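Protein entry
_____________
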Amino acid sequence: MNGAASAEMNAFVRVAERGSFAAAATDLGLTPSALSKLVTRIEDRLGVRLLTRTTRKLALTAEGELFVTRSREILASIEAAEAEVTAASERPRGHLRISVGTAIAKQILGPALPAFLDRYPDITAELHVSDRQIDLVAEQVDVAIRSGALGDSTLVARKIAEATRVICASPTYLEKRGTPRLPADLLQHNCLTLPGPAWSRWPFHTHEGINRLAISGSFTSDNADLLLDMAVAGLGIARLADFMVARAVQHGALVPLLMDNHVPEAFPIHALTVPGRHRAPRVRAFIDFLAEQFGRTD
């Protein structure tokens, strides 16, 4: 593939993402008319219509959807190949697109990013915070940080930490309601949980093996950060990832509970990248930095 073809693909992908010639032209430093002619040239060469043009917006045809998907894959492969060739000598630079879940974004990555960008002044960062699963190629993400077991994937995964779960409550709550000494005591307490039965059955060691105790309370949220805030505020007892509660425990805002009985259920945290892209200096530098930061929650 020559440089002109890859440039055309990149331009078309940008038009598809932005939904208008004007917005894409601004990004690419072209005029809208020049960009429109470029897309027309691609359509003429392929003999198919890639975009449906209206006065208000652009929409991809079925052929356009296919062309965008394949173009993204090809552009990612080109970038990966270039990264492999230049990784040994190039200093980290360029734009870094990161996808991360809400809990890690707030507790680890958000506080640490200023130090990363200060260390690497030639890198700019774009952070997308969401707990949904994403397509790294389709959404042009360099690094996704995800917790839990990995499914079958062609992505390159580097384990950057292993987390566990901690049951904890604030001193204010414990002064008011008492401290549970045995797992069964939790049945008399206000327990804060994520929605779903799996999150309201907390595991404990017993003589017969692991028993999952069904707990309940006055507050449930699909946002673990909000559960942390509620626990610190004294609303009840929560079971959360250790990296989320580390600062609060260290500063005395939360107290770990039932540590002799509780099953902490360790789970991995991975940095995921598209094959080849993990060798890009900016990506490699960021993943190395992540591995450092997961050991610094104080």
